[in-house]
Specification:
It is a single chain. By secondary structure, this protein is mainly alpha-helical. It has one domain (3-118). The chain is 79% helix and 0% strand. Helix 1 (3-21) runs antiparallel to helix 3 (36-56), helix 3 runs antiparallel to helix 4 (64-86) and helix 4 packs antiparallel against helix 5 (94-118). The radius of gyration is 16 Å and the shape is globular.
Length: 122
């Protein structure tokens, strides 16, 4: 089992389901929203990614699909957070999420590189 995928999957589930259970507190923390349907659409997609990461991380080793899903979803979210937060389109609180996403990026890269050093036939 790979802990990175499990932790990232749980993080995505918790943060993605939050607006479904308490939109009021989600908006209070993350700032006003004009398109609630978009908040919920992104949330639903992150639930799917989170489940995929957890299922893909259950085996002995992650396959390329799980690694790519974890790495590139985190990278995409980090870049979106940084770009729009620095342009004052979204709240600066999203820079905190960007830090978490970049940690996932570096963990996936480190895990992949370390895995190839230990088991080069992977």
């Amino acid at each position: 089992m790979n802990g990175i995928g499990i932790v990232q999957g749980v993080y995505y589930l918790v943060t993605a389901l939050w607006p479904f259970f308490s939109l009021h507190t989600f908006i209070a923390v993350t700032g006003p929203k004009t398109d609630i349907w978009l908040v919920k659409t992104v949330g639903a997609l992150l639930v799917v990614i989170g489940i995929g990461l957890m299922v893909g991380s259950k085996g002995e080793q992650n396959n390329a699909t799980t690694i790519c899903l974890g790495l590139f979803s985190a990278l995409a979210l980090a870049l979106i957070d940084i770009y729009y937060a620095l342009r004052n389109v979204i709240s600066k609180i999203y820079l905190g999420d960007a830090v978490v996403e970049l940690i996932f990026v570096f963990l996936w890269i480190g895990s992949f590189c370390l895995g190839n050093l230990i088991n080069p036939s992977r």
